[in-house]
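Continuing the batch. This is chain 6 of the set; chains 1 through 5 are on the previous pages. Same settings as before, nothing changed between runs. Recording input and output for traceability.
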Amino acid sequence: MDKKDQRAFLSRGCYCAPQPHTQQLDVYRHSCNKLDAFDWLQNIPASGSQANTELVEVRFKNSRKEFFRAAPELDLKTGDIVAVEASPGHDIGIITLTGEVVRLQMKSKQADPENQELKKVYRRAKVSDIEKWVAAVKQEDATMHRSREIALSLNLEMKISDVEYQGDRTKAIFYYTADDRVDFRELIRVLADAFGVRIEMRQIGMRQEAGRLGGIGSCGRELCCASWLTRFKSVSTNSARTQQLSLNPQKLAGQCSKLKCCINYENSCYLDILKDFPNTEKELVTSKGVAVFYKMDVLKRLMGYAYKENPGHVVMLPVERVKEILEMNAGNKQPDDLAAEELFSDTSPTPDYQSDKNNLEDSLTRFDKPRKNKKSKRRRKKGKGHKNPSQE
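Output for chain 6:
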């Protein structure tokens, strides 16, 4: 199997293509794949009413996961390749979760576990099902490139980023991105004639497209949306302001041209710390003058103030000192200065690197030793080996 076919199955969480005539042992396992799910109830014994749950979670391609209802006699396990109900025909997927944890997963995704209209799991995939599925998956890459050429010939302002064939190869889902509304009725007719399958068009956002295509971020690691992130939350510039980040679009925008998802990761931590900070709009009144707020270091709990007469000199004050001055101003009192000297006096002892001569690792002059000249060594050795004839 070449690299293109291997990449097609990696997007489904498989480290290799399933072999139709062998057991599918650990085919579904793929490290650092966002489709993997951890059953944190697997070591907890289920009660009688929870032992034979019929709900299962099945994954397909990229971030697409759906819930199905299976018959108890199937006795499905995580990693089983199954044929599930689709419209029309059937689809092939891999089971990721079984048991009571599926019911909790459905509630977290606002799905009704008691819904009797859930699609069904027909059976474990047969040899013919897997053969047809593998053949369909191998055609996805070529179909995507051909569909892009067709969309370009029809002058459509859209980009087809991914194609997913149904397991029985009766339908293909084309994922695309577009800035404006696109009339793709003619495109559907051309694609149906070219590939001989039922066509379904799904519009996705720029973040979902980056997650499907993948890439390397500015941090040097794989994109979060391509490696583990499955739910996309809205990111606003208020989160960047909270973390005192520079509002530079080139630094804050990711490869999807949207604000980076990682801006939200530490935002809650900053919000919790800022609850203890005083109001920055209040001025500090001292005997030297009135000081206004300029900047802050949230994690170090420091706030920068400068006098109105001297705005270029910013003094970083601890939050406790700012609160103390505000309390004094509330009682019609004024401190002599913004910060007392004892608050910023460095009482830590200065390390003496020259005192310990044996500690060469911490010595600042360990590389300053004069290098001996090799030529002078050779001359001295020659002088010792050859005696002067006058001395004899």
